[in-house]
């Protein structure tokens, strides 16, 4: 043993074994992300909002499950101006990936360590009150640059942001702090994705818009030198009055419309597909129970395909027995309960399916398009949550 030079021996061994056993990411189940679709969507959205409005690509939650770095780069290529994230860590990850554009942290940072990190990494924090503003000012005191911040105003979401009637006072106090630079002011829409947009624009969104405009009026000319922003995807697509100086788009950047039955002339392309392979084919008698709890019993002699994807991969168990997947352009129904790692499809009507063939569970396959909205309607969720759930075990393949 002692005569063997450890490094030499191990390196040789490791390299051969790894190259042999490294699994193909497409061997079981995977997420396919079309980065050109994201780039296209950013371009389409940028054209739609016009040159006087900035486009923020919201890439929080690992780019809505698409991969934050991939999405950020594609969106910037397509003409996005800035990025939005929810947490400090998400911002740092993008800096480490070499991105140098402005990045706004949409969540609340509460202590000086977090705010110091934000300053160090050139990430713009969202401030909802004077407490954080003072911390920021102290951090940047005697430093080579000012601490750039955005102020958030609550116009009716009742989440982050200061009260509308505090803004005037807050802005004048912030402007007295020499080491911070208030660059933007914003608010967030609560129900823009639920408003009936085909009706006249009298809704809670209108109330929020009125409140935001009132706030801007309160601070007078000062607001002209701020980046004012209010709209998410739903606001962006529904009414240009909501655009102001910048829009913050998430869902539409990924190719989906935020509103059911929302007619859009924009050519947005869904960027994500979820695929999995058939790992086993079974032929069973009529009356055979399938999966945990035997939620499904065959009503005829059946051919079943076992597919290797489950709720641990992000397919909600609430979808059990409700979804279909596309294979060779044909839809086959999922039967029985969705388990942690597997689910079963009834392929009796498409008996030529073989082991190793690929099913598309979500996304486009030939003529079929299975949308996150379709899944979320079936499972009592929303498309945003469906997209964010593919983050644990599924490899991501960028095309
Ligand atoms: C997530 C988020 C957005 C993006 O919303 P979409 O509906 O996905 O377009 C915009 N603004 C804020 C503050 C957010 O948190």
Briefly summarize what is shown.
This protein has 399 residues and is of the alpha/beta class. Helix content is 30%, strand content 25%.
Summarize the structure in words.
This protein has 399 residues and is of the alpha/beta class. The protein has 2 domains: 35-254, Alpha-Beta Barrel (TIM Barrel); 272-398, Lyase, Ornithine Decarboxylase, Chain A, domain 1 (Beta Barrel), CATH 2.40.37.10. It contains 12 helices and 20 strands. It has helices at residues 6-21, 35-49, 60-64, 68-77, 88-96, 112-120, 130-140, 167-176, 204-218, 233-238, 372-379, 383-388, and strands at residues 29-33, 54-58, 82-85, 103-108, 124-127, 147-154, 162-163, 180-186, 227-229, 246-249, 272-284, 289-290, 296-297, 302-307, 324-327, 330-335, 343-346, 358-365, 368-370, 396-398. The strands form 3 sheets. Strands 1, 11, 14, 15, 16, 17, 18, 19 and 20 form a 9-stranded mixed beta sheet that branches. α2 packs across α4 and α6 packs across α7 (130-140). The structure holds pyridoxal-5'-phosphate (PLP). Pyridoxal-5'-phosphate is lined by residues 58, 60, 106, 188, 232-234, 248-252, 258.
